[in-house]
Amino acid sequence: MQKRMGEAVARVARKVNDTVENKTDSLDLANCKLMTFPVGIYKAMRSVTEGIHHISLANNELKSITSRFVTTFSQLRELNLAGNYLHHLPEEITSLLHLRAINLSRNRFRRFPEPLATVPALETIDLEENEITEVPTEKLASMASLRSLNLRDNPVGPDVRLLVRPLVPFDLLLSPEKPTPEA
Known about the structure:
The chain is α/β, with parallel strands linked by helices. 23% of the residues lie in helices and 11% in strands. The protein has helices at residues 2-22, 39-44, 67-72, 137-141, 158-161, and strands at 26-28, 54-56, 78-80, 101-103, 124-126, 148-150, 171-173. Strands 1-2-3-4-5-6-7 form a 7-stranded parallel beta sheet.
């Protein structure tokens, strides 16, 4: 058990070091079994955080994203948080003025994360395979940059199915309606 943990820590350290040394614009910590975003990464990456535009934390065991994470990586354009245990986002997500795409599929959201509705550059929101029943339709309709909202495999209410062009200027992806069983 300790050996596997040590290997996981070493893998994360290697990925962070590669990003810092090569001054790349992305950090890929997908599939690292992270339960939280390691605090040590903030210090290790402080010289390059402004240049990080893409972060993948997909397929970990994250239960939350902190406001510190959002404010540290303020220049993000793409954020992949798919396959975690997230059920809400910090309000500070609204400060990500350059964020164009966020993948929150396969998480634990029961409601649409409303702070996303005020992220100005957001074009793509993927919330496939969550537990979302409520969607702030009016707020979504006013999102000028939004091009695609994926709500497939969510138990959304019938009002969401009424969101069609030209009422909303984006593509809304939903699972087909299940036929109602006949009595």
